[in-house]
TrEMBL record:
GO BP term, example: protein ubiquitination
Organism: Citrus clementina (Clementine)
SMART domains with a match to the protein in the record: BACK (SM00875), BTB (SM00225)
Lineage: Eukaryota, Viridiplantae, Streptophyta, Embryophyta, Tracheophyta
Protein purpose: May act as a substrate-specific adapter of an E3 ubiquitin-protein ligase complex (CUL3-RBX1-BTB) which mediates the ubiquitination and subsequent proteasomal degradation of target proteins.
Pathway the protein takes part in: Protein modification; protein ubiquitination
Protein name: BTB domain-containing protein
Length: 478
């Protein structure tokens, strides 16, 4: 029967720097020239657990400090070397290099006292493929031990058990805070993905949990900002929030630039930010100037692309980690704006709505566009499901509003249009003029002059490939 000694250290001894080590776990070799274990090696070895005392003090070479520490406890466990070697590359190398089959039946491992329970569970798993522990903390300890001793099957088993336990914010953050070697393991990816999805869903509406989200660690805020389903006003708001979080957690400019450049900046979808906010990115000291120029230029090129090309770029990123060209579920729908200064101040605004978004408006919902600007003033479009003026049926309405900003007045000519089948050209639906003051809105309650049921019907002429294409032209009257 072979024996393996496992030296169990006190917590304060961080690592033994012995000459013969593998992945931070030392093993003793009594042979001057170790030989590989032959195929006919005996089936059983012994595992001796030894608990070591305080670390030696004084002016001693740290490479030998473990030899001088006091052994507190030794525990011998009889195990089958072929079983362990078959399930763990670590143990295969240990048995191959750490003992001579005919002369040595002991191999020694050194571990911390806190690792003993997890190691015993791991050894039991390698025999039975089950674990007796069920608590998240204990399972994490076994997971860490399985990673350390390269038992991938146990890592997968622990990951599956942890995924099946009720997830909390605390446990999700704990899973995302595992050492990088564990996080990178394929066996743990389903667990970390589940943790990220939990946090993204929990903090889907950042506005409701601002303080909580601001207090999240880096791994937590990354999980939230990476989500496509983030319910936020616009990507401008994502940018502002990421900047606020970085300034809170990294007060030093150099560290903040590093974290924004290497981690958080990748999660901001700059192509969906407004041009006004992109101008501020160029002058923001928190970003490296070279990075700021790069993301703004990339965003402007994206905005200038045709819708088909934009969709193609988004599709290419469908399975990537950083999805800068994929549109989120913004509270304020993005618009495309063309501005003219001469011969008159004018802008043309394009707003596209998906059929599902329109369906969700019934019976009294509203969708607001992102702000756009004309003559220095902010305007927005809003799509409504409302009753017609005779209150006899629901219908689709479109309105134009001016944001609150002082008491300035603007006389504006405006025109609403929509693409229709079969020509797929924009057709004018409503023209008007209005003198705006801050906070006022004007529009048409029944833009298409039909009931809601006809507007949403399968054969509706207003949905082209599942999208409603709206256009508004605004001109400041002289």
């Amino acid at each position: 029967m072979h024996l393996v000694d496992v030296l169990v250290q006190r917590e304060q001894i961080l690592q033994c720097n012995m000459p013969d080590t593998e992945d931070g776990v030392a093993y003793e070799n009594q042979d001057d020239e170790p030989e590989a274990m032959v195929e006919e090696s005996p089936a059983d070895v012994g595992l001796n657990l030894k608990q070591c005392g305080e670390e030696a003090t004084g002016n001693i070479d740290p490479a030998w400090s473990m030899d001088l520490s006091t052994v507190l406890r030794v525990k011998t466990v009889h195990i089958s070397s072929p079983i362990l070697a078959a399930k763990s590359p670590f143990f295969y190398k240990l048995f191959s290099n750490g003992m001579r089959e005919s002369e040595q039946r002991y191999v020694t491992l050194r571990i911390h006292a806190s690792e003993e329970a997890a190691l015993m569970e791991l050894l039991n798993f390698m025999y039975s493929s089950t674990l007796s522990t069920t608590t998240p903390t204990a399972l994490l300890d076994v997971l860490m031990a399985a990673d350390k001793f390269e038992v991938a099957s146990c890592m997968r088993y622990c990951s599956r058990l942890l995924r099946n336990l009720p997830m909390t914010c605390e446990s999700a953050l704990l899973y995302l805070d595992l050492p990088s070697s564990v996080l990178m393991a394929d066996a743990v990816q389903p667990l970390t993905d589940t943790a990220k999805q939990f946090l993204a869903a929990r903090y889907k509406d950042i506005s409701k949990f601002q303080e909580e989200v601001l207090n999240l660690p880096l791994a937590g805020i990354e999980a939230v900002l990476a989500s496509d389903d983030l319910q936020i006003a616009s990507e401008d708001a994502v940018y502002d929030f990421a900047l606020k979080w970085a300034r809170t957690h990294y007060p030093k400019l150099e560290e903040r630039r590093e974290i924004l450049g290497s981690r958080l900046g990748r999660l901001i979808r700059f192509p969906y930010m407004t041009c006004r906010k992109l101008k501020k990115v160029l002058t923001c000291n928190d970003f490296d100037p070279e990075l700021a120029s790069k993301v703004v230029l990339e965003s402007l090129f994206f905005k200038a692309e045709t819708p088909y090309r934009q969709r193609a770029l988004a599709a290419e990123e469908a399975n990537s980690t950083y999805r800068r060209f994929v549109e989120r579920a913004y509270k304020y729908r993005p618009v495309k704006v063309v501005e003219f200064e001469l011969p008159r101040q004018q802008c043309v605004v394009y707003l596209d709505l998906k059929r599902e978004e329109c369906a969700h408006l019934f019976p009294a919902g509203r969708i607001y566009s992102q702000a756009f600007h004309l003559g220095g003033q902010g305007f927005f479009l809003s799509a409504h499901c409302n009753m017609d003026q005779q209150s006899s049926f629901h219908c689709f309405g479109l309105f134009l509003g001016m944001q609150e900003k002082g008491s300035v007045s603007f006389a504006v000519d405006y025109e609403f249009a929509a693409r229709i089948k079969p020509t797929e050209e924009y057709v004018s639906k409503y023209k008007g003029n209005y003198t705006f003051t801050g906070g006022k809105a004007v529009g048409y309650r029944n833009l298409f002059g039909i009931p809601w049921t006809a507007f949403m019907a399968d054969d509706s002429i207003y949905f082209i490939n599942g999208n409603l294409h709206l256009r508004a032209e605004l001109t400041i009257r002289q």
